[in-house]
Amino acid sequence: MERRSFLPRSSSLSTLLPTSDEKYYLPRSVQQKRRFKLRTLLGHCFYRRVILWILAALALLILGLSTTSENGLRRERLLELVQSRPYEETHDVSEHVVEEEAIVTGSRREKVMVVTSSEKAPPPAWREGMPYWLRFKHLDGFFVGLKALVPAREYQPEHPRKPGEGSPFPLTISYTGLPTPTPYVPHPDYESEKYTAEHHEAQPCYLDKAKQIPVPEVYAYDGIIQGQSEPVLGSHNLLGLRDDVCFDRFGRYGPYGLGYTFEEGGVEVGMDTERTGNEVVWEKTGKINYDTIDWAEAQARCLDANKKRFRDPADKDQPSTTTSSGKGSGSGKAKQDGSKQGAQEDPTFVHSERPKKKIGRTAVVVRAYTGYQWTHHAVLNFRAMISELSLRSGGEYTVHFLLHVRDGNEAIWADPITAQRILDDNIPPEFHGLCTMWSEDQMRLIYPGGFGRSFSNPSSGSIHGVYRSAHMPLQYFALNHPEYDHFWNWELDMRWLGNYYELFDRLGNWGREQSRVGAWERSSKYYIPRYHGDWANFTSLVHNETAASGRPAVFGPVSFPGRVPLRSEASGESFIPRSCATRADPSCGVGEDADLITLNPLFDAEDSGWVFASDVTGYNTALPPPPRRCAIVTASRLSRRLLGVMHEENWRLHNSMFTEMFPASVALHRGLKAVYAPHPVFVDREWELAAVDKAFNGGRDHTSGGRGSPFDLRNEHNHKGTSWYYHSEFAGLLWRRWLGYAQYDGRGPNGGRSGEGTLRGGKVEEERASSTGRMCLRSMLVHPIKWEHPSELEDL
Ligand SMILES: *[C@@H]1O[C@H](CO)[C@@H](O)[C@H](O)[C@H]1NC(C)=O
Ligand SMILES: *[C@@H]1O[C@H](CO)[C@@H](O)[C@H](O)[C@H]1NC(C)=O
């Protein structure tokens, strides 16, 4: 991509900075109260990082002599922006289901507890019109606490179970005391001989300029809570994610400020929850004072120290791998973590004076928007993301906020003071330097001209609007950032319960190892390990089903009436690697980075009943619409070349499709490598596995697409009890219980739904002597998290 021609405003604007008007770079007056209503609309924005660094440097320079007052102001600024009120559980939590007795074995005083189900009413008989899944009983194991931690080999899941296997409930647990967590490091061992033999040395990074504050480690417990369910959709093991450890709230977020006061530099949330034995997470680093941290500067310093490890975008010939995958060294006796080196070993360089491998870099682009109500929990989440992905990887990843300025009347391009005001009003100061602003008007400028008719436009939105074309600003962002090979599109209301590096690194590795043969067909189906068997069996099953369907498997670019070639296609280039000489060779695409990694299946939108399936623009409406694939939830990794092709489809061919459908369909049309990564998704009920398969793979030819799709408006309710879907009810409930706040458990006489049932969990319940303690969950993605602290409910 010719980036030069698209650089509108970096150096020119920095010369406009009024160097003497320092007061404009101070945080806004703390007296001025501002409240933002949380809006669920997705948002975004564009600004030059360089300028912000200059701004931040200026502010620091000027305020150099009065750092304490600056810190105070920063803190108050943050408080003003996020405002969380003190919270007390006003409802008495329900009666307990735990009985306890103490037994003395020798000198050891061991306690034994019996945990029974809290389902008050038996599951109702199915009635006409009632969603099928509501007839299944709720699962209890998620909510059992740390006293029930057992080694992985003793673990027995409540669900799914093999036929004939009994439920571990009522659960009998015996314990002598709370277990202790240990640091959890999923990064490669950068100091190992193996690593340094192949890669340039990694320099450690720090939170501060003086290199006094090391980046903390997350803590995990070695083991699993007895009886907790396994994921039903997807798998830890398949993707190389550890499934033999669990995380509690303090191990996960304590290092970033959960559980200690503002005076100590924390965010003060989590102190209103049960917290026995949480001090251990601060033993190594102390309670870190985050008041003065500037994350953009920390990332820049880290990258600078590690520059030579990474591929230089100007040098195309360097050997490169996308990640520096190595063996994680998590707590305890780590079992093989599944991350493989295989595909990256290049025998060409295995002799004495071999050049060291350079690593490709990845941007994580978080879609922020003006009006978003920041909270302390959200701040913690992004501190964790930056620390784990960027600072602890020595700059392999960089986190950016693409800030959508929704008011088109704001002169963000003309006036740096306006831009600064928007940051002050909308983004916590510690993240200002990560922001790039954009607006829909800007997209009209970048992608001018008529886009032609749409087959349908159910939302009646503009083609340049964020709702229908959320990727436009990401495409433009990629053009302006040639230093990255891949771009994660991420949203504010997603959380990863675990270490972010483990998630993104393993997904990238897994995507690279996948064959292109049958990839579109496998990706169109939810993988249910306990039902489909291992991945080889699943691959064989999909192969057989495809053969039985009578439809040819997708391989390479698809042709369709009215297809217009890309410029590269017209000049004879192709995205198909040389290893793909025949469409039967399973090594085709193995070792090739995926252009698109999605977190839900890539389903055929045709006849799927998905509301926006025909929101297709720019193609000849006299012909049938082109073939389409779609993945719900826009969180996904896109390669530079995929974004480049989408850019050309937009500006040159004036082709577009509804947001969730555009990247996948472009990849399909142009022969790019796309995979759905079956990450672990949990369900709240004891589904029969055949029913899971029927509900989630009930589309055409046993896929998730076409007629009968789970994404049909009438079928989407099936996702409400899962941990990952845009309208999931379970994700928020589980997450807030894990954070330590009482929630209505959703268990009621009509099968139970969100908001029904009894108030369970929270401080009062978890602190009772008869409680099993605070929750500890295996790693998982949760979405949507619309609120976290109970006081936020009043703002909704
Ligand atoms: C392979 O998959 C089929 C179809 O889902 C299933 O019936 C069979 O039990 C699986 N085999 C194994 C070994 O898991
Ligand atoms: C697919 O078909 C082959 C040949 O009929 C059979 O051997 C194999 O077991 C089938 N795979 C699955 C998972 O059913």
Automatic annotation (TrEMBL):
Annotated stretches, region: Disordered: 307-355, 749-771
Q: Does the keyword Hydrolase apply?
A: no
Which keywords fit this entry according to its UniProt record?
Membrane, Transmembrane, Transmembrane helix
Which residues span the membrane? Answer: 46-65
Top-rank lineage group of the source organism:
Eukaryota
Basic and acidic residues compositional bias, start-end: 307-318
**A Pfam family hit:** DUF3405
The residue ranges flagged as biased composition, category Gly residues, are: 749-760
Q: Which InterPro entries match?
A: DUF3405
Q: Does the keyword Hydrolase apply?
A: no
Protein name according to UniProt: Major facilitator superfamily transporter
